[in-house]
Amino acid sequence: MHKILPFQGGKFWAMIRLDSIKKSFRDQVLFDDLSLHVKSGVRLGIIGPNGSGKTTLFNMIRRTEGIDGGNLSIRKGIAIGFVEQEVENLHGRSVLEETLSVFPRILHLEENIIKTAEKLALHPHDMSLMQSLAELQDEYEKKQGYTFENQAKIILSGLGFPAEQYATQLDNLSGGWKMRVALAKVLLRKPEVLLLDEPTNHLDLESLIWLEKFLMDYSGAILIISHDRYFLDRLATNIGEIEYRQMTLYTGNYTTFEKEKEINREIRTRQAKNQSRQIAQTERFIERFRSKNTLATRVQSKIRELEKIDRIEVPGSSGRKVKFSFPEPRRSGLVVMEMKNIDQSYGKMEVYKDMSFRIERGEKIALVGPNGAGKSTLMKLLAKTIPYQAGSFVIGHNVDMNYYAQHQLEVLIPESTVLATVESVAEGMAYTQLRSYLGTFLFSGDDVEKKVKVLSGGEKARLVLAKLLLKPANLMLLDEPTNHLDIPSQDVLISAMRNFSGSLVCISHDRRFLNAVCNKVVEVVDGKLTEYPGNYDYYLWKKEQIRKTESGKNSADTKKIDGKLTYEERKAIKRAEQRKARRILKFETEISNLEEKISSLETEMSRPEVGSSPAKLKGILDDISSNREMLDKSYKQWAEFQEE
Fold first, then answer.
1. CATH top-level class for 1-79+191-252?
2. Are 388 and 343 in contact (CB under 8 A)?
3. 436-475 residue pLDDT tens
4. How many alpha carbons fall within 13 Å on the CB side of residue 225?
5. Which of 369, 439, 542, 595 is in the most buried spot, having the most CB atoms within 10 Å?
6. Treating both helix axes as pointing N-terminal to C-terminal, what angle do 127-142 and 104-122 enclose, rounded to 10 degrees?
7. Which of 104, 86, 174 is nearest to 457 (CA)?
8. CATH topology of 335-549 equal to that of 567-643?
9. 0.90 surpassed by pTM
């Protein structure tokens, strides 16, 4: 009999324990004897093909999904944070209000402090009101009420929200931005266990890098479902692979997992071959001596032995991969597209002024830059889905274009089948050819008759790619092409893109994709384009070199003559160290002064004459909040300077 129970007594290092879990949906067995123990500080990347049960595993831990067998134990009092994939219920509040709503007790305390202070103003000698106000203020401080709004703003800023957007109503946000708010709420709560299901899908590169740093400093346990190999390499301390209805744990990041997996695959293959030989020998013995009465007992023993064997599955025998390549397009002219002096605005908001951009044959360009800088607008201008207000736009000779946009997943017809969706754009392909073509995208058998509305995100992404590739093109415009694709499918897409003879412009937060495919990076900042020949790693290196040059840092501290620094160089280094010491002292003095000021204000707030005056109380609360913001800023500057 399976159980779901809290831990009983003793000290367990694991906060969550899954032991010998069994789970099935109709005739499909998802888990059979799956075990997992989660302890504090672990950052576990959970991988496995689409449909292997990764999200179901999260739902079981959250107890929104039952188990069919085994034991699930969660230590009493453990808070579990999860970002819901359904965000349509987020409405009626501003971005900041919704983020702060995860701490209703603090908001309630804030409201009660103001009400109690107002009552005390009418009855300044009421000792019970004074006592109540002191208790409320004490609890408010213990729950970090004075800093939680500032913490929320730091997280929102890291996830790409500018300060002017904090007051934006949720009803005016897209689904992707609502997902960022939902993520901000979970990060602000800082639960002991954080469950993240594809957290990078709705983030740009800058927000993704910020999230990486935030999670690397996280003290609780993190379980991450992700198809972003670079993200897992940077963040994961362990990898849990769901395969053969069980989970295998590996120590290290994704690259380490791949190496160990290959070793395990070889071992398992040898074990499977040895077992296969053993089974064949047993079967031959049974067939040979089945009719001999003198050996009947031994034959029956061999039959029972055969029935008890746990068959080892040969690695790779059940896994399927997307197999596709881009059709060979016709050759375009040298200049594929050229924009000159383009102006583009949305109402009063100017995105581009006098912007020029050129694509040449064979270029594979990555558009990078902060959120809101104009990357998506540039992509839409190239795809001609939006008009420009001024300038010229010339398309080169023999250019055929395909545009893969994220929203294309949303405009698929829900009631249409997989086959009908592809059939609508196929020209001259017979029914059997279409079925064979869809098979390369893992839609085989009855899958082709599935309706779009029941497809997973990964299946929809594959279907849109299948539509796209039916038409040969020599210019591909791709907006987040790896979203929803598992890692093996991404590998195949990367291979196809590297062998693609045409031109490419893409927006992607997948750094591995950008490094493997792109030969030019175009940075978009405030409507200005800067080109960097090379892949994403080269772009980062070049940016760092520019930053060092602009900040006055040269390579003097590394120059050597005959293996030794010159006298002038030693003097320069000493002066730099003295300047650094003075700046550190300046920051530390600022921090000390601000901490003293905050302490003084908190003491002032506890005085009866202040507590009885709502106006005075509000003024001091505002001063504390303002000083804490300055303190956080000073700490941040001090830390950044130390890091430099």
1. alpha beta
2. yes
3. 888 877 787 888 899 988 887 778 878 887 887 777 789 9
4. 24
5. 369
6. 160
7. 86
8. no
9. no
